[in-house]
Structure formats: C-alpha cells, structure tokens
Design a protein that fits this description.
single chain; alpha/beta; TIM Barrel; 10 helices; 39% helix
Length: 281
C-alpha cells in the first residue's frame, strides 16, 4: 500500500456535483517557478495527491511540468488554482482560467477566487463565470479563499449557492471558530493556508512542543494532525524533501481530546495576513 492511500478524502458539494478532495495537500505559495517542478515531484513521491497553486504565485508552469513528468495519471492528482484580484470580472475570469489551464497543461479540479477584494465589486460576477465553467464541465468544483461571513452571504444572496470550499488563514493562533461554524452550517469545507503559522513562533510554543514530545512527533506534525482532526483540509508548504515527507507522515497517530483542547486554547486572534474586508490587491 502506498502512502497516499492513508489520506482521507473530504467531499466538496459544488452545484449538483460532489467531488472528493484529499484532506492533506501540498501548497506552493512562495515557491519560484523553476523550484516548483522538483518540489512538486518530491511531494508526489512522498505520497501527496493534491497540489494547490495560483496564478499570482507565478509557478503554474513549474507545477505543470512536474505533473507532466510524473507517471501518475492526471485523475490521480487533485489540482487547485486561483483567479487573482486583477483578473476578476466575468469575461476576465474565463480568460484567466483558460490561461491558467494552458500553463498547467492539464484540467483543473478546483478553481478559487483568491480574495473577495470587496472594493473592486467583482467577486459575484467572477463567481458567476466560475459557475459557467463548472456547468460546462471545464472544472469540477469551484470555491473561494479569504471570504468573511459577510462576503459568503453576499455571494449566496446573489447566486443562490455557497462555494464548495473557503481557503482561509488558519493556524493555532488564529482558529477562525465563528467562520468555521458558519461553514459547517452551510456545507462549506474549511481549508487552511499558513497552517503552521509563519516564522516558527507557533512551532516553538511550549504547549505544542510538550504534545510533540509526548507523541514522539515534531511540532509541525502535531499541528497538522490538529487540523486534520478538526476537519480542515490542509496544504502545508516546504521545498525541503525531509520536511515534505515529515509533513505527510501524520496518519499513524491521533491526538487525544485533551491535546486537541490544549491546542484549541492557543487561539489569540493573531492574523498574519491582511484582513479580507480591507485587502483589494
């Protein structure tokens, strides 16, 4: 049995369709295009079967090269990319999607709005374009990133559906509990970016390091396990082969309720990225 068989799938409900996304995927934010090819290849070797990129990352072509060079069938690797703020709008989004697909060189499974960019006033038209792409069979599922509750409600009021997934900043210091409750109430899957925080501060928290010592795991593995047991889809990023493998090795242990509660107590509302209500890119 290969390692990827251990990864649970999460069901995305997108329009009339249901699609399975691996709960643990590989993210390539801040990975240069030429570095993305060997990094994604290494992730696939480690067992990852989901890759998350975006037009603004500038590495779709590098990701596409790794997928093309892999001996895995395209349907075995779940591929996500995103429309950037300056490509929002109906016709612009269709063109951006086609350009991303050309760079990636294979069909896209999940297409996301990267930020609501509310001052631009285009995310509803952008989503309508994505609905058309989905209904035409060009993409399997659609969703959003960084949407607050008010953005999700505005979108639903306009188009009559909620996105399949909302990819948001989420880590032990910023747990987005109210947003996750809203997701759960409306069938929206929660996906975490920067799941380990940034700069190592969370990794060095004594609550995390004590739990890691107790389980014989690394702090990063403990945090990723917390995400998985919380029901989040998670996409850690690393370009170091040993760390790529380490981040994947989180399916042979389970955190106790006490450990989960201890990590839950670390939520202090510290956001690392911009506020989606204000960021317009």
């Amino acid at each position: 049995m290969t390692a990827d068989h251990n990864v649970p799938n999460i069901t995305l409900t997108s329009g009339a369709a249901t699609v399975q996304i691996p709960q643990l995927g590989y993210g390539v934010w801040q990975v240069e295009d030429d570095q993305a090819t060997p990094a994604v290849a290494e992730a696939l070797r480690a067992g990852y079967r989901s890759v998350d990129t975006a037009r603004i990352y500038g590495n779709e072509a590098g990701v596409g090269r790794a997928l093309a060079e892999s001996d895995l069938p395209a349907q075995d690797v779940f591929l996500t990319t995103k429309v950037w703020n300056d490509d929002q709008g109906f016709e612009e989004t269709v063109a951006a999607f086609e350009a991303s697909q050309d760079r990636l060189g294979r069909p896209i499974d999940l297409y996301l709005i990267h930020w609501p960019a509310p001052a631009n006033g285009k995310f509803v038209d952008t989503y309508r374009a994505m609905m058309q792409l989905r209904d035409e069979g060009k993409v399997r599922a659609i969703g959003v990133c960084n949407f607050n509750v008010e953005h999700l409600e505005e979108l639903h009021d306009a188009v009559g559906e909620y996105p399949a997934i909302n990819q948001v900043e989420l880590h032990p210091n910023f747990q987005q509990k109210k947003l996750r409750e809203f997701h759960d109430a409306h069938g929206i899957v929660t996906e975490a970016w920067s799941p380990l925080g940034q700069g190592g501060e969370i990794l060095n928290d004594t609550v995390i390091t004590d739990i890691a010592s107790q389980y014989g795991k690394t702090p990063a593995q403990v945090i990723l396990r917390w995400h998985l047991q919380s029901g989040n889809v998670v996409i850690p990023k690393s370009v170091t082969p040993a760390r790529i493998a380490e981040n994947f090795d989180v399916f042979d242990f389970e955190l106790s309720d006490l450990a989960m509660q201890a990590i839950g107590s670390l939520d202090n509302g510290t956001r690392l990225g911009p506020d989606p209500a204000e960021f317009n890119g």
